[in-house]
Amino acid sequence: MKWTFLIQRKLRAMCLLAGIMLVIILGTMLSQHNVEGIGHSSASIYNDRLIPATTIIYITENLYSKRLALENHLFSNGAAVSAKVEKQLKSYDKSIDSLLHLFEKTYLVEEEAKSLSAFRDQNNRYAMLEARILSLCAAGDVEEGKRIFAQHGALKFREAVTSLNELTDIQSNVGKDLMKESKSNMASFGVITSLQIGLALVIGLMILALFYDSKIIEKPALKDKSQYFNLN
Q1: How many CA atoms lie within 13 A of 214 on its CB side?
Q2: pLDDT digits (tens, 9 = 90+) for 96-155
Q3: What whole-number distance in Å separates Cα of residue 9 and Cα of residue 13?
Q4: Distances from the Cα of 71 to the Cαs of 96, 128, 142, in angstroms?
């Protein structure tokens, strides 16, 4: 009956082995998912966080350049002649609009979309205010243009800059979340890899045990020693 016991033992070992193989397969699939998640997070950090953050810098630079150009114009001797500065402002507006379109092509969370929309509206209102100031200068009312520039214009400018700062903060927070997600995926990947190594060792030990049992079955049983003695 020993061989029956060994066969049952082998069947149990095979069932256990099949279960371990299933766990390894599932672990491999989960590892692939984690690797894909890490790749997605890394790509998103570059495409949806780093590039937009750089875009915000360029938008801010153009916004400040606009205000500086208008300020220099207002406090120059030829403030009544606005054709040159008007061309400069339109160039800056065109650059800002192109950068905004580039920003909108990236993945935006809800807060980003709201802040970006708010900035676009504020920038449009500020551009309209600039046009009004230039019209006053062209009409000879330079002092009124200066007053609007220093008061209402400064307020609109700060509102636009505040929206850009909010976008920068959102970029930073979302980037931190992506980093946490990447670290979590890496930790899961490490745990699964360790588990797979452990299961591989178990499989190796089971194979050795099955091989040992096979040797026992194949080993011929010793004959009864009494047959070697002749009774006289």
Answers
A1: 8
A2: 999 999 888 887 788 888 888 889 999 999 999 999 998 888 888 888 989 999 999 999
A3: 6
A4: 19, 16, 12
> What residue numbers bound the domain in which 59 lies?
12-218
Nearest residue to 62 (alpha-carbon basis) of 101, 103, 87, 93:
93
Q: Collapsing DSSP states into helix, strand and coil, what is residue 222?
A: coil
Residues 6+ apart with CB under 8 A from 79: 73, 137, 142, 145
Q: Where are the alpha helices (DSSP H) in the chain?
A: 2-44, 51-74, 83-104, 110-138, 142-150, 152-218
Q: Higher model confidence: residue 190 or residue 34?
A: 190
**CATH number for the domain harbouring residue 123:** 1.20.120.30
What domain count does the chain have?
Answer: 1
Dist CA 87 CA 95 (whole Å): 13
Give the CA distances from residue 42 to residues 17, 19, 214, in Å, rounded to whole numbers and listed in that order. 37, 35, 51
| Residue 18 to residue 9: CA distance in whole angstroms | 14
Contact 116, 103 (CB under 8 A): yes
| List of residues 6+ apart from 143 with CB closer than 8 A | none
- Please indicate, yes or no, if residue 229 is contained in any of the structural domains: no
Q: Which residues of 196-211 are buried (b: 16+ CB within 10 A; e: fewer)?
A: beebeeeeeeeeeebe
